[in-house]
Amino acid sequence: MSSTTLGAGSATRPMTNEERKVIIASSLGTVFEWYDFYLFGSLAAVIGANFFNPLGADGQPMFNEATRNIFALLAFAAGFLVRPFGALVFGRLGDMVGRKYTFLITILIMGTSTFVVGILPTSASIGISAAVILILLRMLQGLALGGEYGGAATYVAEHAPQGRRGFYTSFIQVTATAGLFLSLLVILFTQLAVGPENFAAWGWRIPFLVSIALLAISVWIRLQMEESPAFQKMKAEGTHSKAPISEAFFQWKNAKIALFALLGLVAGQAVVWYTGQFYALFFLGQVLKVDGFTTNMLIAWSLLLGSGGFVFFGWLSDKIGRKPIILGGCLIAALTYFPLFKLLSAEANPDLARAHANISVQVVADPSTCSFQFNPTGTARFTQPCDIAKAALARASVNYRVEEAPAGTVAGVRIQGGQVMLANSPTFARELGAALTAAGYPAASNPSVVKMSNPFDIFREQPAVLIGILTLLVIYVTMVYGPIAAALVELFPTRIRYTSMSLPYHIGNGWFGGLLPATSFAMIAQTGDVYFGLWYPIVIALMTVVIGLFFVPETKDRDIYAGDSQHH
Predict the structure, then answer these.
(1) Does pLDDT of 478 surpass 50?
(2) pTM, full prediction
(3) Count of CA atoms in the C-beta half-sphere (13 A) of 145
């Protein structure tokens, strides 16, 4: 019986109960993992106040600035940079011991770490050890997340009938968005229930403690599950890999596939994903000065409206292929980001958009005194007048041009061809603010800015159009992300699948994606153009289109069992 007849027969039948259980179990666990992971990010400010920069009894910060900076750096790194190591540790385990046991372990590590954060005494009570323990817990979370996703995707794909893998694995793709959504909801409800003062004091612990219930459900579901059929068959025939890591990454025939998967699929997917879900959030809040509640509500509606796309594009990729959808999404995103973000500005803060178009501002400086303000951890200090001037303008969302001045000139700002205000003057910040307002830059809370009075205040032009634009950005996310699990699973043989797909996924999303906000801000400050940060996702997305087009094979018709038995 050839693999084609097998595929044709199984592609048309409905999902069996067993398969439905596999998908629900894998997805639920993965939702909870993302929930745990995002809680930390969403509550970063509260956690920072309690652990990294608490005030002592005298009202002064307990730790000096250098110590606080190291903590911020480690907490950031722990979340993102550790994920690829988790992919290696658990990928290896998953290919040697089995899919089911490995992601039982990852969810236990994740759930326990999250719960412990909820009961951890603050630095005020147990000193610096609180901060150290917190960073260790965050590293454990990053490790566990590195193992979870590859496990869930591999497990579901190995249960799916030939010809339906895109549809089946797309449910795993919804989980990251659902986890983000769940964490925002739980935080929102907790804040409403206990009030802002209590929330800052002890209420922030509730979302962490709730995770123990989620953990119990997940573990119970995962214990009911069978090992994946592909892995069982391989184990029975004794063809499993003895050294998955060296086989996956030190044999060029496999390593080059992982490399092309990273550059020709995942890197573009990662930047489109982060631009649609996080950069849009950052842009609305930091650049367009929309209040936090409205920003979160607009994003929440767009996620709600657009998330069906994950499953739709997963299903479609079974019909027309993985590459056209993923690379098409990268290409359309790269071509439309500038007009869409300009439209976002014109709708969300019309006065600011008008000022950008009509008011000319120059930073007059000797270029050798200006630095590239790349500061992913918030720990670097830029003290040159040129950097002070640029950062002040970037924070005020002012568009400016840099005008070269002779060496030795003290940097300053000129508005509409007026006097240069020197950045080293003690009153610079006040003078700059007054001059910008006088020239017609709107105050931060100008009446033209979009403001929602309640979650359902969406039936008027401003919020409705914004939700439309944001939903389109989410649809790009679903195009690149819906089929990615299936595409990665099909590139690698069963014996090294868990290891091989996890590493490119987490390097792409953890590093290319995770560094996007910091890189974009540095690019904005460097050039003085609030849209310039978009070049980062655009260039990476276009690189992915080119590399993916020429070097990544189309895999939708592959029989993922082929080549498992021949191996000696």
Answers:
(1) yes
(2) 0.84
(3) 31
